[in-house]
Amino acid sequence: MVDNRYATALVIACVLSILATVYLSVAIGTQHWYQYSSPTVRGEANVSELRSLYEEFMDGEFDEKTYSDTLFRLNGTVGLWWRCVLVPSSGNWFKETDAKLVLECRSFSLPQQFTPKYKEPGNHNSGEDMLRTYLWRCQFVLPLVSLGLVVLAGLIGFCACLCRSLTPTLGIGVLHLLAGLCTLATVCCYLAGMDLLHRVSMLPDKVDGSLGWSLYLALISSPLHMMAAALLVWAARSHSQNYYRMTAYRVA
C-alpha cells in the first residue's frame, strides 16, 4: 500500500516529466533557437547579392560562412537541426513593397553536425577551432542523451508499476536529474557557441540577433525535469524510511 502523499508526489512528478519531455522534443524539432532581424533591402545590387546568397544557401555546398552570412542578411533563424531564411514567395525579390515572405529551411545532416568549425569561418587554412567544434557537437548530442534518459526512466517506471514496487523510484529520480542537467548544458553550449560565432563573424550593420522561443522551451524543460527528480527522490527516501520504521516496530 502506498501512502497518499507518495502517490500524489509520483503523479505530479509524472506530469512534470511529460511536460518537460514534450517541451524539449518541440525545442529540438524547431528552428527558433536564435533569430536575426535584418533591415529592408534597397537597390538592385543588394537584391542580386541576396538572391545569390539564397541560392547558395539552398543548393550550394555546406559552408559555415555562407549559411551564416545568409542568415544575417535574410532574417534567418537557426536551431539544433534547422537553419531557415525569410524570402519573398514570388520571383520578384523585394520589388513589391507588400510581397509575402515565406520561411525556407534546410536541415543539418548528421555529417554536417560533426563538421569541424574553423577559427575563420569559411577559411579551412585558419585551423580548427576546437572549442566551437565541441560546443556544437555537445549541443547536438546532449538533448538526445536527455531524451534517452527520460525514456529509460519511463521504461523502468512502467516495470515498477507492473511489479507494484517503489524500489526503483530513487533511480528514476536520478535519471530525471541527469536529463535536466543535460538539457541545461545544451542551452549553455548553444549560447556559448553563438557568442563565439558572433566574435569571429561580425554581424552586419543594423542586423540584430535575439533568442527564440525554442530555446526558452528547452530552458523551461530543464527545471521541470529537476523538479520531477526532486519529487521522485523525496518519495523514494520517505517511503524507504517509513518502511524500515514499520519493520523495526513489528520486530520489536
TrEMBL record:
GO CC aspect terms: membrane
Keywords, sorted A to Z: Membrane, Transmembrane, Transmembrane helix
Its membrane topology: Multi-pass membrane protein
Subcellular location: Membrane
Transmembrane segments: 7-28, 140-163, 170-193, 213-236
Domain of life of the native organism: Eukaryota
Entry keyword Transmembrane: yes
Principal cellular location given in the protein's record: membrane
Protein name: Claudin domain-containing protein 1-like
Native source species: Xyrichtys novacula (Pearly razorfish)
